[in-house]
Amino acid sequence: MGVINQGILGGFSGKVGNVVGGNWKGIDYMRIKPASVANPRTEGQVNQRTKFTAALQFLQPMKDFIKVGYKGFASKKTEFNSAMSYILKNAIAGIAPDFTVDYAAALVSRGALTGALNAGLDVSVAGTASFSWDDNSGSGSALATDRSMLLLYNESKGEVIFSTAGAQRSAGGQDLVLPDDYAGDTVIGYVAFISADGAQVSNSAYLGSHEVAGLVEN
Length: 218
What we know:
The protein has 3 helices and 13 strands; from the N terminus they run ββββαααβββββββββ. By secondary structure, it is an alpha+beta fold. The mean pLDDT is 88.
């Protein structure tokens, strides 16, 4: 029961329904008591949290890449939140409680610029990741001056190597140097393009999952 301290127009202390009244440093206040949740860990809630964790672990290491790749979707939310939303809706696989990111369905870049054609990735040479694509300049919105956006996600280490201003589309490929401790690790590759003025990006193309070649011993 609430008690009115200063008449009908004064503040009150205690509880009336779900409204709680009190006084703090001479200031009367009222607040709504939060509704209690009978079971805050329902199966649906647990599954959603598991999916969220999987998406977050995948995207967190590449947040700087995402800032460029999702720049066109940051009007009402951040680039990172836009990427999280896309992954959760389109690229979560598995059966509860074992949810994972479907790397092939994931987009690390989204946009209307014409994407890569016949793109590939080769990590068979120790210390080198060789990206390749066909020069499709003049097809759709593709221009020879578009720059490549390259990303490698190291699954076991939970880290990425990337470039958001790589070789031009007309070059047909580019290499990225890999750390020595990547030997034997599995990496997942993506390639996209960004226009020379930075205004447009393409959807990323998934380049598969590859085991990095080991170092050659002398």
